[in-house]
Write the structure tokens for this entry.
Amino acid sequence: MTVKKNNGKKQDIDEKNDRGLPPEIIELLTHSDEERIKFILTDRWIDYYNATEILEEMQYLLRQPKRSRMEGMLLIAPSGNGKTELLKRFIRTNVLENGGRYGFVDIPTRATLKAFYSELLFVLGIPNTRSETTGELQHKILQAINQLNIRMLIVDEVHNMFESRRENIKDVLNGLKELSNQSQIPIIFSGIDLAAKTIYIEEQVSKRFPYMELPLWKNDKEYRDFLYTFECLLPLKKPSYLWKLDNATEIFSYSDGLIGDIVKIITRSAEQAIKKGSESITSDLIKRIGERIVAQRKYANAPGTKQ
């Protein structure tokens, strides 16, 4: 489900006690608790400025005419800040809907060019063997791109290569540049901040893949607008006023500005609001869910924890 940001004036809405719910959400209020919870836990997309700017750049890359030096991009975002969801959103609305296909591959840890080519062929559904040379694998990839109507290649988790030997990193990057040149399709790299340090060890590659960042959220007007729009998509029978400063600040404090955790706090709190019958996201619910998410994040980031 995709929703454009609602730009209604919050002060007027509050004074009139008008929650600004769209008709489909008003209809959902008459459904069972189970149906409403299922809807709340369903993935949805809400437009916001930074994401829209990146989507527009990717649309430009997809529309560029075929040439020997295709432009690409490096997308940088903290872990848990919606990078993968943004890429999937782009694929759904700009590639698949226009009859094209795409390649989406994670770079293996400490990858060599041959290992990466093998992984890419696997993703494309093309069998390959260990005895094949790097050149033979590249030839298979180029054939597959042409036969399968692959319009874009997305290479995720680029930071996985950071601890690889410098020679191997250069081989992979130059191999991808060559793939882009010969196939005449754009490539998007993505990863956390280490991805930039990885990509930019090779000057010729860095010039072809300027970076765009999906930064952490700030506790500002855009963030509160996002909360307002999000609340309008929650089939709760009572208002929660998530966008008011106190609630917005509390959610923000537990999320560290990560959109993934902001969404988790809201959706899980909304689920509990229905189960417990409050029908509104209260400060107590935000605190309980928020503290749990903070604890999970600390564990995930602890030294020696497997990611």
Q: What stands out?
A: The two ends are 29 Å apart (CA to CA). The longest strand covers residues 150-156.
